[in-house]
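Worked Example 4.2. Consider the chain below.
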Amino acid sequence: MVGGGGIPVGVEMKEPRRTEAKSPGAKSPGKAGAGKGRAKKLPSPKSGSGPKGGNGGARGAGNQGDFQDPHHIASRATRLEAAIGREVRGFRHQLGMTVTQLAQSANMSAGMLSKIENGQTSPSLATLTELSRALQVPVTAFFRKFEEERSATFVKAGKGLPIERRGTRAGHQYQLLGHSFSRLLAVEPYLITLSKDSDVFPIFQHEGVEFLFMLEGEVGYRHGDKTYLLQPGDSLYFDADVPHGPEDLRKLPARYLSVICYTRSQE
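Applying the procedure from the previous section yields the following structure tokens:
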């Protein structure tokens, strides 16, 4: 069949399609329409996403859970779950039991026990009873650490508690600035003052570790076979079971902070 002007109708219809196929990136009207249809069905962006964020923003939000927020304050319930979990794990280790062994003895799955020990779930009273039976401890033992008093020590300037120590007879003045409440770890912060009446005393020796921070004056402080010149702002951290102490009083008066830390003996 021939249309107006002597041009076949079939050729007239096919020619535009051949031209469109040669154009880079061109799509057929049908496909373009389908593409537009899909674009209309896309969900609206959720909170936190945007042109710059995209899928990367979503992944970044997910990864935030891998890091601890230093400003996060756990709720009382969360702290209780964590305290119970630590106690359960501690009692299990004392008995030399594996997670599987304790789970079987307490009639629960190993997965549930793992969640309890990691503070990820709040165990029921029935569950705690089963655990106390398997661990041979009273139920109240799981709450002891949580119920321990958490306190602080505040000392006004110049109001530290005078303490006598080995260096007192050498003219060293000690002011205790606080003490720890833990039954396992002892921390003793002192403000030490050396005056013209003080004498050298490089033979201190005790358990734990010690940290010094120089506030005023200059002191040559010996630790083992080395002597360190301490000036204001300098610090020294060392194992305290090695003989140590001020060996050269260069500029007096001298004042420095001394923090001694050691584990308490288990009885």
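Residues 70 and 80 are 19 Å apart (CA to CA). The chain has eight helices and seven strands. Compare this with Example 4.1 before moving on.
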